[in-house]
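== Polypeptide entry ==
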Amino acid sequence: MDKEYSKILKVIKEKYGRPITIKFVSNKKTRYAESRIFSSTIYFSKEFWKTLTFEEKLAVIFHEIGHHALYFRYIRYLLLAISLILFLFGLITKNYAPLLIWFLCFFVLFFFLSRKEEKSADTFAAEKIGKAYMISALKKIKVNKNIPLYKKMIYLFTHPSIEERIKNLEKNS
């Protein structure tokens, strides 16, 4: 794995130009792969990593990089910050009606942007590594029955279905 890992880091540097750290975690911490805001670390499930080919690993890594490179994630968190400020303002002024309307609009917009972000990150990865590899990696993602219900619900709201993501790639890449 060390040789492959080094090769992957080399490709990332060539195609992205920034250093990325990959950490391997148990399936309980992440189902597949994820990145976090303001971090250059990508967390990979050890089990998921083993199922992927070299090119699929690169596609998933570039999908995660796409979340940062395309800035959607930062826009969502800016919306969250504005929402919290308005929430506090509403509490202080005891003006709850506009606050409730804003909060509902915020969540609809937040989830819409999140779903759009997933498709854009898929397209980013397809452009960097190849559409076929991104589609192949998406097909390997399966619903994990060990995930708590609340995490499944959040995932359903923030991620389009695998089929929808594949159709988007076939249409737009």
